[in-house]
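[Automated response] Your request has been received and processed.

Submitted sequence:
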Amino acid sequence: MPTVVISPFNVVNFLEGGGHFWVYMQYAQGLRQLGCDVYWLENFRSNGNDEQDAAVLSTFVARMKAYGLDEKLILCVSREQAGASGAPNQYFGMAQSEAEAVFHRADLLLNFHYAIDPALLSRFRRTALVDIDPGLLQFWISRKQLSVHQHDYYFTTGETVGTPTAAFPDCGLPWIQIRPAVCLDHWPYRYDPHFAAFTTVSSWDGGDWIVDGEEIYENTKRMSFLQFTELPRMTSQVLELALFLRTAADAEDRRTMESHGWRIRHSREVAQNPELYQSYIQGSRGEFSCAKPSCMKFQNAWISDRTLCYLASGKPVVVQNTGPSSFLPNGDGMFRFSTLKEAAEALATINADYERHCRSAREIAEAYFDAKKVLQRILNLVLK
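Generated structure:
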């Protein structure tokens, strides 16, 4: 039975991000289903308040228990600033000697933390980086905005990364294409024709900008959604966005969207833990969502981990077209739009034969994104 350590990024310190939790749990559960002994290795950034730290850690351990990983946690506790390097101050979840023994015997570190401490990385005899930000990660590396230390393998969920069609550099790394994963057993089919709203859960204005020479643009979901402000006036379909809103400017954007017919909720209402997030998705009629501008700029054929959860649940999706794909369907269970008209027509087509598109959505997840298949491909390549 292979021992695999996965290294997620910023899950324990972002407890209200139920969707963020699921990104990495899909891979952990896929590995467990394949018979692997799975450990969860993550950096926990202490704020120096012991009482608050204890509450966060207690909540996280209880959350992980529901997924069989409460006794497989290795948290590197650091009081350093987020993103700083250096050896962790202490371990939580198991003694340092026990953690070091796990590192020593592990067959693989499956790493999602691009800026992982190199000293920690060096403790493993076989390492694989997983790129879940295709195009952006390569852009950051090429512009020296991010330094990624050497791994044995480099996997990417980007269909065009490292290919001649890519609109961004490969950074001289031997990228291996995989598909993003959803654990089908944890995301069962849920059909109910009475569910009313097409929904999504999204960040809004994270203050992200792309600076590429003289080209500068705001790389947020906000910029993309605002281009489709008029959509509710072109369809009878209820459209609801659950957004992570923080500022007065965000509140003004909310009022603008609502004045055009959008239903807006705060993401904390529906995604503050993994169970709420799942319930929200499975209680939706389908998904309508936009992508960050960089996805269209890079033409990376990106698909969201959240969209996979909708598909697995049997929810048809209407998502922004992020570039040509060799396998992503368009017109049956999944619709990829570029214009207001295309988005409105997709919603009408789905509602005209809703049950068929629900079945097709699940079939897409089963055919392309089954976590067991994705993880088996990784293991076959690295443990050969």
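Summary generated for your ticket: The longest helix spans residues 18-33. The first strand starts at residue 3 and ends at 7.
If you did not submit this request, please reply to this message.
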